[in-house]
Amino acid sequence: MDLSLTGLFLAAGLAFGPHAVDLAEIGNYQREAFSRDVTRCDELASHPDDPERVSQGIPQSSVDIDAALAACHEAVAADPANPRLNYQLARVHGYAGQHSEGDEYRSAALRAGYPQSLFVIGYIRITGWDGRPADACYGGELVRRSARAGRQAGLIGFPHYVLSGAFEDCPPDAPHIDTGEMAGFLERARSQTGDFYQLALIEQLEARLAEQAE
What we know:
Elements: H1 3-11, H2 40-45, H3 65-78, H4 83-95, H5 99-111, H6 115-127, H7 136-148, H8 152-163, H9 179-191, H10 196-213
């Protein structure tokens, strides 16, 4: 994998492994449906690259696992339907190596269509990052949906995976692949970044996509 793309993926906050949620159960995230009040969980466990975070965000190396677990369990107990809080609790369980303990919270965030969860779980299912069985077809659709939700890593990552042949053995429409949609993903990604390496990668992917369309 291109090093700049690897960095983009790792920056997305990989922390927990796959626990299948049926695609039909995954909704469209509605920000206004959930509290945006800043909790101690947000202060200790939000990811810097999560577009739905409500605080500055904490990189993995700075997460206080014990304090964040306590704060996020308390926050989820008080607001159990909030996908942001569920994602953050699952994130911390993952950093603690407690993948199974985080499954129910990851699944809750995924069912709500939380953009950060869509990308992170999609990546893990494609790669088998945590040692559980990989499922590129399912994971690819999650990454695509994260792109549709505007997640930068998904906007770039989905065209990358398609052009790299990651889904060649998948059945039709699993994931859904449309050249025009992917071109739109890359255009949106370009508008959301000023990072040299991301822009260079976007340019490469756009050129490959244009060649494929000829």
